[in-house]
Amino acid sequence: MLEQFRQDMAGVHSDVVSIMRELLHLTQQAVDALIESDVDAAQAIIDGDDRFDELTLGIEDRVLELIATQSPVARDLRFLQSMAFIAMYQERMADLACGIAKAARRTARKQVPQPLIDLIKAQANLVYRVIDASREALEKRDLELALKLPELDEPVDSLNKQFYRELGRLTDEDEIEAASKMVLSARYLERIADHCIDVGERLAYLITGERDLLEAAEAALPN
Predict the structure, then answer these.
(1) At 37, which helix (H) or strand (E)?
(2) CA-based torsion, 60, 31, 37, 102: positive or negative
(3) Of 55, 112, 128, 219, which has the fewest beta carbons less than 10 angstroms from its beta carbon?
(4) pTM recorded for the entire structure
(5) What is the predicted pLDDT for the residue at 90?
(6) Higher model confidence: residue 103 or residue 213?
(7) pLDDT tens digits along 141-189
(8) CB-neighbour burial class of residue 63 (10 A; exposed 0-12, middle 13-18, buried 19+)
(9) What's the angle, vertex CA 126, arms to CA 120 and CA 130, rounded to 5?
(10) What CATH code would you report for 2-219?
């Protein structure tokens, strides 16, 4: 019975890691659709959003079942709770990627200023790094890497501010309308990276039983 419980927990962990890996690909596809004005790719992402809801809700259901049937305590209970929280963050990340796809659909036939396209590419590459680092930290239960996530996220926030400066320089009404969708997508990317920090916080709590470790790491970054 105990061995089956261990296997079930390992299965939950493996599936949560797999979802994070899929989220990286989903975000890349959404950004590509935005940059390339690919309406079909954007619509495919939007149509597939329910699948991520099912995956993440499935994690929550399995966690609740294991808690109800196995009555875990201490570290095991902390592990299951953490997996449920991480699945919740993953569902939000998928929604944000879907939001980028919707922006791609709305800007497909509009002229987007090249500086904003270049910025979204640069920001997206930074966000991919944060997502993959959170996936690796989660997969390996690597506390050191989890604590580095705020440092990886910092340049994402800096680039996001540049979008608003570029938007403020525009005067053409059509460009402003298209650019506003691009700026919104930049905000979605920033939020995806923020949820990776949330994943890191839950992972740090899982490993150590202590809260606010990532907050302390973030506070230690230079202003």
Answers:
(1) none
(2) positive
(3) 219
(4) 0.92
(5) 97
(6) 103
(7) 999 999 999 999 999 988 888 877 877 777 666 667 777 778 889 999 9
(8) buried
(9) 135
(10) 1.20.58.220
